[in-house]
Amino acid sequence: MRRHPRPEPEAFGEAWERLFDPPIAHRGLWSPGGAPENSLAAFQAACAAGYGIELDVQLTADDHVVVFHDDQLERLTGAAGRVRDHTAADLVDLRLTGSDETIPSLAEALAVVGHRAMVCIELKTAFGEVGELEKRVSEVLLDHNGPTAVIGFNPYSHAWFADHHPQILRGLNSYTWNDPAARKLAPELRRSLVALEQVEIARPDFLALGLDMLPSLKADALRAKGMPVMAWTVRASDDWAKVADHCDNLIFEGFAA
Description:
Elements: H1 14-19, E1 24-26, H2 40-49, E2 52-59, E3 65-67, H3 74-77, H4 88-91, H5 106-113, E4 119-123, H6 132-142, E5 148-152, H7 155-164, E6 169-174, H8 187-192, H9 199-202, E7 206-210, H10 217-224, E8 229-234, H11 237-243, E9 249-252
Helix pairs in contact: 2-5
């Protein structure tokens, strides 16, 4: 495996500067009854309000990168099946949560945002798997001039970017993995998923940690050595106030950060 030295922060240019300010809108600046999450309208709203943007990406059946959070289509479109089982052409006909908004491609989303906002792109990959999504996302990012970062829970995905495209800013996600869904996993697997044990594998440029992990002595120690920490998903100003001294920025929704 090739090992590139970690770039100095200045090498990331505008992306590094905008990692810390302004706050980053979770799945865009969406709201119930308003712009749907992960829609072009939500990204436009975030830009207009002066926020950064977090969004989620995954592959279609024909390996196009689309912006969509859930594995299944039903919650956000009413359609059956997984995103991965439909082609990009199939998805064009779907509408998000009763709106006129469609499922955008990553390229479309970045074209709409341009230089107006920092975009943190969460890769929806399974733990330990690396493949076509990383390659396809990197191709889109290399054609985009605006500030971006890739984030996600899979340390091996970050390691792939570190080896192949070290100039792309990377943030490793984690939380306590103690919610009802995660408790179905074997305890040893849950422990292996905690990002603070994965930093050596991932070689990230920053950490994106769930509020349930913060504050953290381990994260504080890494931060003191130059590893920025971002908090997610912050849904109230009081919650941010509790952890702000231990973080460098926040991914938020549901209030004016």
